[in-house]
Amino acid sequence: MPSQVELNDVRKGFGDRQIIKGIDLAIQPSEFIVLVGPSGCGKSTLLRMIAGLESVDAGEIRFDGVVVNDRTPAERNVGMVFQSYALYPHMTVAENVGFALKLARIDPHERQRRVDAVLESLQLSALRDARPSQLSGGQRQRVAIGRSIVRNPAVFLFDEPLSNLDTALRVQMRLEISRLHNRLRNTVVYVTHDQVEAMTLADRIVVLEAGTVQQIGAPLELYERPANRFVAGFLGSPQMGFLPAQALGLNGNALAVRIAASGQVLAFPHHGAHAGAVTIGIRPEDCTLCAPEDGHFAGAVLQVERLGSDTFAFVESTGTEPVAVRVGAGHTVAAGHAVGITFDPARAHLFASDGVTLPRLAA
Amino acid sequence: MRRPINSRTAAVRVGLYAIALLFVIVFVSPFVFMVMASFKPNQQIFGDLGSFRAFLPVGAVSLQNYRDVIATSGIGSYALNSAFITVSTVGAGLFVNSLAAFALARLEWRGKGLVLGLIVIMLIIPLEAIAVPMMLLVASLPTLGFDGGLTIQWSWLDTRLVQIVPFVANAFSIFFFYQAFNDIPRDFDEAAYVDGATPYQVFRHVIVPLSGTTFATVAIIQGLAAWNQYLWPVIVVPSAEARPLMVGLQQFFRFQTEWGEVMAYATLATLPVFLAFVFFQRWFVQSVMGSGVKG
To answer: Of A313, A317, B101, B283, which residue has the fewest beta carbons closer than 10 angstroms?
Structure first.
């Protein structure tokens, strides 16, 4: 049975350093939750606390309403896939997968039946007698998954499981993990720093930064309605471009905002009254290149990245970090060109000086 | 592509081999002399001393010295005592020291740092410094016996036990295991805990199978020390019943001027150690080199 997992004001520190600074999170049964954030944000520590591998300094972790703070990983009935896979090198594939059942003193025949079923489902039957050192990265990953599912755990925990794989294999394994979740419907908590993994796998994403939750929501919700500048910048590749600007207050039904780089004033129709320094956030796909004199602001192309399906131009303007613009694959723009950029203010985001997104008015 | 060896590199190499060969000669020649002399009568040993014949099986070579040693020295029972002491010390030592190292390397408990510090301090205290207080301690420890009923004897002196128990827990072995266990990734332990293992099962099923070389090395080092024990049994084992081989050798050659027999005794005493080293040396060298590379 998939479990419901609740974190209530969970905290953790090492020495004087607070790593997890009070996190509240409710994970529904069968939900696929992805914890995402930059290195050192505490996401792996939080996962290890849910697993029972790390103690909890304060707060409560509940599985199906029962506090499990002092329970061992096995008592919590979690399965975990480690970043390093952590396959026992002295055991065969079948022994690795069956180790948990052996410890649980499951009858050898039943054990073999369950191991065979797992190996079959992960297409590992031919490798049952191989040692981990004889396997490729993808095969090791599958064995690690097999080892965690053989006990049919209530909660699956993945700690950056794809970070050691090459790009092609990562895409394939992503699909396999997604398929596995659709089949087993276990509750999954998945840690990654890769926002593509987060966006493609998650039912909901939890964005962490410096031990605090920045935002929780469905992938597209976070992408389109980031709660603050950190979330806006973290999700999306290339990342959102940011322009320093000044909010001048309401002008009719729209908020008037002056772009610092060009002095142009734009009307933002979905925002209420605000005055003072703000930052405009624009996604690459919401920007258009044009002649310098026609743009909302102008700058020089710093670099062009041609990815085949897409081309991104990175434009630097006075006082701004480079802003990415998605152009057609065949676009002839080149580094050093002077260009202008236009965008639809209705699609753009506004962040107050403290980084928090200015509330959008209901359309 | 192989790099051509220039003449300077070749000269350096020849020089290094020459030095290595010199070391081999210095270390091996006493051993060869001992073995060769063990087959010769006293007169010939002294006659051969001034020439290379001392290192060759030439002249009146026979097994007579061995026959005499086995018949008169009591070497058989001493060897049995030494074998029992060595096997018991190594067997119990591997278990106790590896478990202690596991607790230090892998488990969290209050006072761990202090205990580790004490073990490191114990590494530098020689047996000679603590032999007398240890003797006073074991002289008043109880042993249980049976003599028509349960008996308690208030001394460990003159037993095999007194040659085993004080050397089971060994600071060097604990520290050696500790360092080796620290090199094993902790993810393995954690994966095992998630799989439902207890700390002892992590030790038994994960750490031990991954530490074969370390166990072999500690067995050799602790086994050699136990087999070659001399000072301690001289202090605590006055009678012949529990006497080990090395003390037996000293006793034997105190009343002897037959050097061929002394050499035969010494050869017999060395043989098991030599064979064990030949058998284990690959692991021994591997382990020493491995820890050097990683360190």
So the answer is: B283
Q: A20-29, A46-55, A312-321, B246-255: which range is least confident on average?
A: B246-255
Pick among B109, B194, B208 to test the A interface (most A CBs inside 10 A): B194
Give φ, ψ of A120 to 5 degrees: -60, -45
List the single residue in A82, A100, A148 with the smallest CB-CB distance to B187: A82
Quick check: is A47 in a domain?
Answer: yes
Tell me the CATH number at A272.
2.40.50.140
When CB atoms are compared, the residue of B187, B190, B197 closest to A103 is: B197
Domain count, chain A: 2
Chain A contacts to B (CB-CB under 8 A): 51-53, 72-74, 78-80, 82, 84, 86-90, 99-100, 103-104, 147-148, 151
H helices of chain B, in order, are 7-37, 42-48, 64-72, 75-106, 112-123, 127-138, 161-168, 171-182, 186-194, 199-202, 212-227, 231-236, 245-254, 259-294
- The CA distance from B10 to B8, in Å, is 5
Query: B190 vs A84: CB contact, 8 Å cut-off?
Result: no
A211-235 CB burial, b ≥16 within 10 A, e <16: bebbbbbebeebbeebbbbbbbbbb
> Residues of B with CB below 8 A from A84's CB?
185, 187
Q: Which of A232, A262, A291 is the last residue of a domain?
A: A232
Give Cα B157 to chain centroid, integer Å: 22
pLDDT tens figures, A179-203:
989 988 999 999 998 888 999 999 9
Question: Residue B31 and residue B270: Cα distance in Å, rounded?
Answer: 9
A123, two tokens: 């297409």
Average pLDDT, chain A: 92
User: What is the per-residue pLDDT across A108-147, written as a single tens digit (0 to 9) for each?
Assistant: 999 999 999 999 988 899 999 999 999 998 899 899 999 9
Position B140 pLDDT exceeds 60 = yes
A–B CB contacts, 8 A cutoff, strictly below: 57
In chain B the domains, ranked by start, together with CATH numbers, are 73-255 (1.10.3720.10)
Contact partners, residue B173, CB within 8 Å, separation at least 6? B93, B94, B97, B101, B218, B221, B222
- Nearest chain B residue to A156 by CA distance is B194
Asked if residue A363 belongs to a domain, the reply is no
Chain A nearest CA to B191, separation (Å): 6
Nearest CB to A99 within list B185, B187, B195: B195
CB of B196 closer than 8 Å to CB of A104:
yes
Judge if A15 and A150 occupy the same domain. yes
Q: Which of A53, A100, A103 sits opposite B190 (nearest CB)?
A: A53
pLDDT of res. B292: 42
Do B194 and A74 make contact, defined as CB atoms within 8 angstroms? yes
pLDDT of residue A340: 94
Q: Tell me the per-residue pLDDT of B7-46, one tens digit each, with 9 for 90 and over.
A: 888 899 999 999 999 999 999 999 999 999 999 998 999 9
Are residues A251 and A180 part of one domain? no
Q: Which domain holds residue A161?
A: 5-232
pLDDT at B2: 58
Q: Model confidence at B4, in pLDDT bands (50, 70, 90)?
A: low
Q: What number is the ipTM of this complex?
A: 0.85
Q: Which two structure tokens, joined as six digits, stand for A7?
A: 């974190």
pLDDT at B154: 81
Chain A residues whose CB is inside 8 A of the B206 CB are 88
